[in-house]
Amino acid sequence: MNIYLAAWYERNAEMRGYRDVLKNMGHRVTSRWIDQHEGELPESMGEGVIAAHVDAAAKYALKDLQDILAADFLVHFTSPGFGLGGRHIEFGYALALRMPIAIVGPRENVFHALPEVAWYPDWETFIARAFLP
40 by DSSP, 3-state: which? Predict the structure, then answer.
């Protein structure tokens, strides 16, 4: 199965570890952002950087959308206290595509309560209980 991992950008190293677990289970992770877009983007782009480099920001956004389209399943990692970020757009995009979605962590908004969205309190529970063919 091809899986997209959506999370706060600063969690990229953690996501690389999860990618390794999923790879060992026979899955492929499509999220290029977890490798900081091949090392091109060492940290997330804040408002000022995006305003100064709109074309570069759009390039990364398009890559992320392509990576979601290449996936069969999206895993959305929540980060309490960090409510902003592209991960919410990625979640909505996958929802609009009717892609299976799992939340790992606390539900942060009403869309996380939709019946078609699976919920797991943490990574360990997700790995133990999620149906990943």
Answer: coil
d(CA 114, CA 104): 14
Q: Please tell me the predicted confidence (pLDDT) of residue 72.
A: 97
State which H helix or E strand residue 19 sits in.
helix 12-24
As given in the structure block, the two tokens for residue 29 are: 């992770």
- CB-facing half-sphere around the CA of 45: CA atoms within 13 A: 20
Q: Phi/psi class of residue 78: alpha, beta or left (left: φ > 0; alpha: ψ in -120 to 50)?
A: beta
**Over the stretch 83-117, which tens digit does the pLDDT of each residue have?**
667 899 999 999 999 999 999 999 999 999 999 99
Query: Which residue ranges make up each domain of the chain?
Result: 2-129
pTM over 0.90? The answer is: yes
**Class in CATH terms, 2-129:** alpha beta
